[in-house]
Specification:
With 147 residues, the protein is of the alpha+beta class. 59% of the residues lie in helices and 9% in strands. Strands 1-4-3-2 form a four-stranded antiparallel sheet, with no helix packed on it.
């Protein structure tokens, strides 16, 4: 009887060990797949195909908005010549003033600001925010924001 009990306990221990190994293997596989998917998405977002699709979608949305504007404002004249000369500068503003302003840079004298973001995986926050423009005059880089 002791031999049967010992064999049953050993079989149960082996079953538990196999289950633990299977769960660890699945976790490892899921982590590998998640990393591969993130890399594939990152590469796709940098591809010419994605850029082309995005440009096409933006152009379609713009055409739809122009159509709606024209539909609901029939008396409004629209100029779709985007390559036309820009409108004249306001009185008192010269091209030199604009060039001087552009040379100064919009973020001159920026003050670094630390931001705190709570996430399960801190690396995803740094990856997701690095290089992102959060708003006008705000630039984010790997956990820091410059205003």
């Amino acid at each position: 009887m002791d031999v049967a009990m010992t064999a049953a306990k050993d079989a149960e221990a082996a079953k538990v060990a196999v289950q633990v190994d299977l769960e660890e293997s699945e976790r490892s596989k899921a982590t590998t797949m998640d990393t591969a998917v993130r890399e594939a998405v990152k590469r796709y977002h940098l591809s010419e195909e994605f850029t082309g699709l995005l440009d096409k979608e933006v152009a379609q949305e713009m055409a739809d908005l122009l159509y709606r504007l024209k539909q609901y404002n029939p008396g409004q004249k629209l100029s779709l010549d985007f390559a036309a000369d820009p409108p004249p500068l306001p009185e008192g503003v010269t091209e030199e003033m604009i060039e001087d302003y552009e040379e100064e840079g919009a973020l001159e004298g920026a003050v670094p600001v630390k931001i705190a973001v709570v996430a399960e995986d801190p690396s995803t926050v740094a990856d997701g925010l690095a290089g992102a423009d959060v708003g006008e005059g705000v630039r984010v880089s790997a956990g820091e924001a410059t205003v």
